[in-house]
From TrEMBL, chain A:
It comes from the Bacteria. It comes from Algimonas ampicilliniresistens. The chain crosses the membrane at residues 6-29. InterPro entries: UPF0145_dom_sf, UPF0145_YbjQ-like. This is Metal-binding protein. Keywords: Membrane, Transmembrane, Transmembrane helix. PANTHER family: UPF0145 PROTEIN SCO3412, UPF0145 PROTEIN YBJQ. Belongs to the UPF0145 family.
TrEMBL record, chain B:
Belongs to the UPF0145 family. It comes from Algimonas ampicilliniresistens. Gene3D superfamilies: Hypothetical protein apc22750. Chain B (3.30.110.70). PANTHER family: UPF0145 PROTEIN SCO3412, UPF0145 PROTEIN YBJQ. Pfam families: YbjQ_1. InterPro entries: UPF0145_dom_sf, UPF0145_YbjQ-like. Signal peptide: none annotated. It comes from the Bacteria. This is UPF0145 protein GCM10007853_00990.
Length: 150, 108
């Protein structure tokens, strides 16, 4: 091994290592999260979730659920490259939908834990933290609605 | 959240009748990220997933914004807030504003 290849290895080594770590941990985390979501959604049972603005009930109360998600290193680089050619950002779509499911689930679990039968008028909003566009500091998803007791 | 003022994001309060509309009630909080949490989040940025520190930080801040809105409503003589909306925006890099607003009303 000559000096040039060695110095190249040293300079791009950490980058490649981060890419690998990001890819492996990110993929595992994603798979675990999806399995976790499936399970909790099945356990949630029969809480009614709607976006309807009016509902009958004895009493209502605001409930919220939120999460901040971020890309792993590999996917952040992949997205940066994807920006050069444009098109659909499948990874970003998947991440945002997972975050939304998580936020809705947390809200619904909170409502159910307090004995509510439904959550109405659900709104979902998301905002970028930190550097805009890169999702460097993460992206926040918030779900809120009115838990209703009958 | 406070237990004496009813909060809902619907246009009416379930099980109650609105007798009087008072007006806008609002509350905001601007929170900057925290160095300790930033470092943890920085590491998390390599492996991806949820940034739990930020989730908690924003949740606390949102609770504060809602409390300020509730205090605003109480000061105006309301006992409920309807049609509440929540929003988040980053004001400068590294700081987020959480804003809660709704219509203060009197219910029976």
């Amino acid at each position: 091994m000559n000096d040039i290849t060695l110095s190249m290895l040293i300079s791009i080594g950490p980058f490649v290592a981060l890419l690998l770590i990001g890819f492996i941990f990110g993929t595992v985390a994603q798979r675990n999260h999806l399995a976790d979501l499936e399970q909790r959604e099945a356990e949630l049972g029969d809480v009614i979730l709607t976006t309807l603005p009016h509902a009958d009930g004895e009493r209502g109360e605001l409930v919220t659920g939120s999460t901040v998600v971020a890309y792993d290193f590999f996917r952040r680089i992949a997205v940066t490259l994807r920006k050069l050619i444009g098109g659909r950002f499948h990874m970003h779509e998947n991440m945002m939908m997972r975050a939304r499911r998580e936020a809705v689930l947390r809200m619904a679990e909170d409502a159910q834990g307090r004995g509510a039968v439904a959550v109405h008028n659900i709104r979902l909003i998301s905002s970028n933290l930190g550097d805009s566009g890169t999702a460097m500091g993460g992206c926040e998803v918030l779900a809120y609605g009115t838990a209703v007791w009958t | 959240m406070t237990d004496d003022i009813i909060l809902t994001n619907m246009e009416s309060v379930p099980g109650r009748t609105i007798v009087r509309h008072i007006g806008l009630a609002q509350g905001n909080v601007v929170r900057a990220k925290h160095v300790g949490r930033d470092i943890a989040a920085g590491l998390k940025n390599i492996v991806g997933g949820e940034l739990r520190g930020y989730t908690e930080l924003l949740e606390e801040a949102r609770r504060d914004a809602i409390r300020r809105m509730t205090e605003d409503a109480r000061a105006q003589g309301a006992n409920a807030i309807v049609n509440i909306r929540l929003s988040t925006s980053s004001v400068t890099s590294g700081a987020s504003e959480l804003y809660a607003y709704g219509t203060a009303v009197v219910v029976e």
